[in-house]
Amino acid sequence: MDAGGVPEEIEKFLDPRDGCALLNSDLDLRDIRASVDGDADAYARLMCRYEPLIFMQMSRFTRDRRSLEELVQEVQVEVYYSLAKYRDIAPLQHWLRRIATRVGYRYWKRENRARKRREILKQEWKLPEPVAYMEPSEAGVALFGMLERLPPRDRLVLTLYYFEECDTTEIAERIGWSVGLVRVQMHRARLKLRRMLAEAGYGKDNL
Amino acid sequence: MNDPLDMVRELADRARHETPPRGNVLPRTLEQLRQAESDSTQRIWRVFAACACGVALVAAIGLTWDYRSKVRDPMQTFFLSYKLPEIYS
Fold first, then answer.
1. Which of A28, A66, A158, B5 is deepest in the core (most CB within 10 A)?
2. CB A28 within 8 A of CB A95
3. What residues in chain A have their Cβ under 8 A from chain B's Cβ atoms?
4. Over the stretch B71-81, which tens digit does the pLDDT of each residue have?
């Protein structure tokens, strides 16, 4: 991240990926305490600050606008009921990301049970255009469509790995799995993805 | 032969520059939370009312029973001890 003008002593407390604070501000802590005591306005202030982060995170789980808003709402409600359990030992945004990942994964599992994935698998999958000419949004749709064809567990680790740039330790932390399990899952998921792409004709002369 | 996962990585590098979607679902959430709180208050009152009705019913049955044991039994005793001997005598 380009932290242009941010003093060095502050810059080290910023997340290089999104520039959000890695430490909770006094404002956050005050609002958290007030929210736990039942102050709805404090909760609204807190969520206003973090809603873009939650939107961004949940857009990795669905591309449908309506479902996206439902998911963001689900996260906000879960945050409200879990705030009392929040301990100020980790930055709030990490805690929010963990909740968002859990909600998103649950959504995928629900979709999987509803056999939506089978319908997706029946649809013809179009190979993306040469990546070099793609707009970021087109690339996002293409990658989403590609990972959508994998089972939820594989899709989750690869989404966090590719979209969110998380390493195995971070993925384990967010999902609540062990690092070993994440490594095994990641290996299997990558094999499946490679096989899927090879079957679709990728890896020969498309690049 | 290229590794197809290189293409995936390249896609991801581009996708990360995507503008995140925006929206404002907070008012809906707050409304839902208020509704949930009001529902839970109503539920507590309903449970309380049901418990009160139950206690009142049990008390009424107990009191009736007690009344019957105190009032009717002496009557029965009265009839058995005074009237019956008179009848059969």
1. A158
2. no
3. 40, 43-44, 47-48, 51-52, 55-56, 59, 65, 68-69, 72-73, 76-77, 80, 128, 131-132, 134-137, 139-140, 142-144, 146, 162-163, 165, 190, 193-194, 197-198, 202-204, 206-207
4. 655 556 555 55
Q: pLDDT band for B86, please (50, 70, 90 cuts).
A: low
Sequence-distant (6+) residues with CB within 8 A of B26 are: A44, A47, A48, A51, A76
Interface contact A206-B22, CB threshold 8 A:
no
**Other CB atoms closer than 10 Å to residue A30's CB: what's the count?**
15
Give how far Cα A206 sits from Cα of A149, A162, A198, B37, Å: 20, 20, 11, 57
Give the pTM.
Answer: 0.72
Distance CA A111, CA A99 (A): 18
Please write the tens of the pLDDT for every residue from A87-138. Answer: 877 788 889 999 999 999 999 999 888 776 677 777 777 766 777 888 888 8
